[in-house]
Amino acid sequence: MSKSQASILLIFVFMARGISFLFSKALMKDMSPMSILAVRFILAFIILAVLFHKKFLSADRKCVKNGIILGCLYTVCMTFEMYGLRLVDTGVSALIENMAIVLVPLYVAALTRTLPGVKTMLCAVFAVTGVGFLSIDQGRNSGGGPGIILILLAAMTYAVCILYTEKISHDSDPVAIGIIQLGTMGFLSLFISFFAGGFGLPQTGKQWGMLAILVLVCSCFGFAFQPLGQKYLKAESAAVLTVVNPLTASVLGILAAGEKLTGLKLIGYIIILAVLVFYNISAKNLHLTHSGAGSS
Question: What is the pTM of this model?
């Protein structure tokens, strides 16, 4: 595979993840957030466990442990994301959550008791400024303020997921870990759903269609092909392409979901997208772009 082909593949992978925000928000009109997560990830788990059954069945105890822990962390992240997504626009959700890549080096600096780099601090300041503009815009909507807080919590948890993935990626088969992670997310979400509004399946063909896209395109496709695309690209090149994720969610939110593009929102979009591009251009660590099955 050439570098250009790998780039195109990754663009489609990150577009698929951006699409997930739109379909998740649409499904939440008729289904509870935890029901959507449960059905989505249980089905993705079954499909990938069948496709990669040799790797799945050969997973050792350490691999299972890492997959379960990662699955629990991602369940927390996705719960914040889904409940926040109910209250704010899809593009806003995707942009704020992808700020996790800026939070990662801040976490590392805190853990190692060292000062973060100047570029990291500048990106963090501008990212917060961008979130400020989005918060003012979304604050005009009912529940917009709490929604922003929930998405910020999702971003903070996503950064923890990225760091933990980096920690365990060298110890076990990432494919097996990812499959166990998805299974953990699915069955844990199923358990939680009984205490958070009850569990329910899609009731119409349209709902099943949207869920099928979430399972096959957003989960299975992204999981299986992101590592393949990154195999032929440098980490910094792949990192820049992650901006396609929130950009896709933003455009689809405006064109397909009828979300309004106000002046404040546009300023927030431009600032945060610029921060993500600027920060990623010189990213040197692969863990900033690849975190298992991803958060969306």
Answer: 0.83
